[in-house]
Amino acid sequence: MYAKDREASPHFSSGSGSGGSRSGRSATVELLLQQQRRTRSSSHGGGRGAGMGIKQRPLVRSHSYSHSRGGFFGNRISLWVSGLAVLVLVWIYLRVYGHGYGYSLRNSHSGAGLGSSRLGQQGTKIPLGELPAFILPPSTTTTTLVRMTKPTASPGKVKGKGGGVKATAPAVELKQGVYIGTTNFKAPRFKKSVEAFRGIPYAQTTGGENRFRPPQPLKPSTETFQATEYGQFCPINDGVVYMGQGEDCLNLNVYRPAGLVKGKYGKDKNGNEVKLPVVVYIHGGGFNAGKGIERNMASFVAWAEHDLVAVNFNYRVGALGFLPSDVTAREGILNLGLRDQQALLEWVQDNIGAFGGDKGNVTIMGLSAGAHSIGHHIMHYANSTKPPPFHKAILESGATTARAVFYPTHPRHLVQFREFLTAINAAHIPESEIFSHLRKLPLETIIAGSKAVWDKYVDNVTWPFQPVIDGPNPYSNSSRANHTLPDIIPDLPINSWLHNNHLQIPIITGYNTNEGTIFIPPDASTNSEFRSFFKTLIPTLKDSDLDQLENLYPDPVTHPHTSPYLSVPKGKGAQWTRLDTAYSHYAYICPVLHSAHFMTLSGIPNVYVYRYAATGLFGAANHGDEAPVVAHDMGFLGYRNERPGLMKTADEMISFWSGFIASKAGDVNVARGNRLEWPGFVSPFNKEGWWKDRGKGKVMVFGEGNNERDREVSEGRRREGTPAGVETLGTLEREACEFWWGRVGLSQGLGKQEASGKAKL
Length: 761
What we know:
Elements: H1 27-41, H2 71-97, E1 102-105, E2 124-127, E3 157-159, E4 165-167, E5 171-174, E6 177-180, E7 182-184, E8 194-201, E9 224-226, E10 251-257, E11 276-282, H3 297-303, E12 309-313, H4 326-331, H5 336-351, E13 357-367, H6 369-380, E14 392-396, E15 405-406, H7 411-423, H8 434-438, H9 443-457, H10 493-498, E16 507-512, H11 527-537, H12 543-552, H13 576-601, E17 607-612, H14 627-630, H15 634-637, H16 644-662, E18 698-704, E19 722-728, H17 731-741, E20 748-749
Parallel strand pairs: 6-9, 11-12, 11-13, 13-14, 14-16, 15-20, 16-17, 17-18
Antiparallel strand pairs: 1-2, 3-4, 5-6, 7-8, 8-10, 10-12, 18-19
Helix pairs in contact: 7-9, 13-17
């Protein structure tokens, strides 16, 4: 990697909890893979979720030194040489990676909730790019990673030659203070230079009395802060509180082209200053993990064909952000992570103009849980008294009808809530006192308890800590006396689609060919295991449903000559490819097509659907694989043209994505000249969900035939594939979506088909 290249390549950072991976997978996908491995291996030793103890992983292992060779002086010389080598390596590291990418440990900007007694050493700087998952050593204190530090000199100025002063850093003035950013250099990682403002808070800390409460607004300030370092990340559901994580985590990062000054882009016909289009990225992670910087938005800005301003941010995940139950519903604090997202979007409306962004042209973009979230916002703002804080959307591998969206009184949520209370030794607390008690517990206890519950459900994908319907529940007499905020998810998502209760805005949405690979059991070998997986996932499936499912996806064991699922990667069970295909349709592909179908029925002209096909791990196009390609992340694509086919695919994807963001009408083909045109999606289904017109259903395919990131493929057999091409939905998608759309109601409300009576699609 090149010097000062950490922000350009989060996928090359280390660490299991906060970093990325060298495979190019997002930090979110990497975490889920690691957790599944740990959970499955635990069946050979103490069981899942056993015990409540918090993991204590020391930063440095102790070593015993032998005096058997070299004697006293020999060992002394070895130690001196080793020490000198370490110092040299540290010096090189600081020279290479330390410029502008440090982390400052000191008191928090907002100051609420965490007292100074819980702070570590103030002013300590850790020069890390993407913060690795170092674990804090056992201690009674918690080190807090700060969002901001005050500058040591005048904002944005240093002394120049001859005693004068000159501006050296970008600065913006907001109601909450003045923020000094930094500039990322251009070559070789960026096509153009980018200015970054990191760690800017958009709400107060979520710690102390703000825990399990909606995001609280910041107070006005005239102070000046350095915005050159990332703020805290919200704690993920991995059982421990990693260094760099904490509850003062509601912060964002803004990226824009360097040299953006007032009037640079001229004035419009009304004499107003022309501002840049804005894109806001919402991270994924199954609502239990993830962080804003998992997508390299600095690179996205640098390689976009149109100048734009980008934002990524953190929101609460796991139990701290999504703790559904009847008790939580009575407290009026459901879906706090989604409320964080809405607070961020409103912050963007109030402040993005100071960065040169156009608040009237905002696109929200998300992957997986980020895309699920966007679907909920599309429905929420259709019934909100506030104007929508966004105007277009990009949903990658996600939709409102993807996976389960239940009422908080669904038995699964009630059981998981009680298991969480038991794990943190709070099952005896009266219901009226539960949340006041939880606000007083150490953060480590909350996270360890969350992980204990998560481990019980990760294998069968019935995950805890999920968004729920917070509108009136016709199946419960539970009081809503404390529910004073607008509902985030007012109704079953399928009902909102059917009743046209959604924003009618341009969208890009799509899926990867093999969405299910990281979620399914790797060793399932029999048809009974195939049926059992879906019966556990959707308990209200009838035997007749499972029989139909078998016919839709023929068993490769009993039908080896006719089943298309016979081939499996080395080390996988015989049902692996079959499960991947079926789960991909259930959880991602058909929900994505559901969104596109209903948007086109509403008459939206600019609706686009894609499929990402370039293969990697398992020889498949896995969930999240497109992320570094969309971002044109050179740390993943290769600085020395190591992956020329993916580079071409990235060029096509970022051209379409940035064109969509730039165009107020959401036209992906804007300014593409004679290059391949992406046809708008016209649903081939009628209102009853049956196949209607095979000439419709056009989908853009990215990276078909590319296998450059598949490590199992030898150098001579690697193929660039086709960067972009158009296909038409086929018979399998028709049959699969007919099956799954007809059973959407089984994963919503109370998990009964009659709960969404009209859900025939």
